[in-house]
Amino acid sequence: MAHALVLGGGFGGIAAAHELRRRLPAADEVTLIAASDTFFVGFAKLWELGGIRPLADGTRRLTDLDAHGIRFVQAEITSLDAGKRTAETSAGTFTADGLIVALGASCSPKHRRFFELGVHNLYSANSLPAIKAALEEMRSGTIVVSIFGAPYLCPPAPFEAALIVDEWLRERGRRDDIEVVVTTPQPITLPVAGPDASHFLAEQLGARNVTVLTEHKVDDVEADGTIIFANGRTVHSDLTLGVPAASPPAVVSQSSLAGASGWAEPDRETFATNADRVYAVGDCTMVPTATAQLPKAGVFAEAEGKVAAANLAADLHGGERARFDGHGYCYLELPGRKVARVQGNFYAEPRPDVELSAPDEASFAAKQQWESDRLAQWFG
Ligand SMILES: Cc1cc2nc3c(=O)[nH]c(=O)nc-3n(C[C@H](O)[C@H](O)[C@H](O)COP(=O)(O)OP(=O)(O)OC[C@H]3O[C@@H](n4cnc5c(N)ncnc54)[C@H](O)[C@@H]3O)c2cc1C
Hints:
The chain is α/β, with parallel strands linked by helices.
């Protein structure tokens, strides 16, 4: 009997655990360890923010994995010995025959300090009640959605948030008195999707009177709401919704899986690491493309988790191996319940071959279906 251990209960970890369960003999054990006992897709937070759908409606409990033959252990992982395939956790020591590391990204320590100075973390579900309360109260002033640094999770999400806030204010007749600004350290809105998609998104924001400040890397924030940029400019904000740069989780950066970047740097087709029968997937990895790196997004974490699980199952019992070919997509949600897809081959040379589909309501329905399919398959 073999034991496969999955560290992390997000997109990558859950997809990997299910794929392992599907491929491994029933006598083999699949264990998933995660600190949080709940799962929801990232965009469900923005739907809660915009009043589109309560977050609770899209939240599932990881204990439901037990009914699918996956043992869930809620515990804090404190260290990882990849060579020994051993994790130290608050629930004891776990050693396995194969390991898939899917611990996600953590928040840049520098940016964590900003959240102690009155900035709201747009990406944290815990911040949503305070953000909603602040929006309810606001009658005039400036709202800044600020991407503090890169890489950050889900490149389109901050711009989607700005459009959601814009719509929310318009519906309440407050938009004329409240300015909405998005700042990004990058030269265009969506470098990962290329100049055409970035231009399209900038036009959508412009049409809604949302100001976009590119090449504005945040250097510091002050308690009175002033945002200080590395280019010397300052912006006064009455309500700042901050997007932290992603940092490698300490458990990964302090392990032998970490490359020079501090992230796990697995093979980008098999997700094998430098340790035997140890794979790393999702946001805790740095996966190079011809021009930058694969976006940190759930669709990629899921695809990588499935590939890693197939390869680990083959390590343990033989059988077909899998490779990730770089194809994927991200959703870009626009006002009026319309969605465009940024899709293509992110591994293409000499640059990713990615394009933006025209936004439509059918793609919004497809995005809803995408979420409900996963919630049903993984937890139903
Ligand atoms: C607002 C927003 C919108 C988004 N929209 C989209 C979208 O439309 N499409 C898309 O594809 N992606 C989207 N994303 C990005 C997506 O949510 C992430 O890229 C995805 O969750 C990454 O999956 P992962 O499995 O790598 O990591 P995560 O989902 O972050 O999972 C990490 C897991 O590891 C656990 N963990 C971490 N450290 C420890 C530890 N020390 N001990 C125990 N457990 C630990 C966590 O509890 C968690 O279970 C969005 C993100 C946000 C914030």
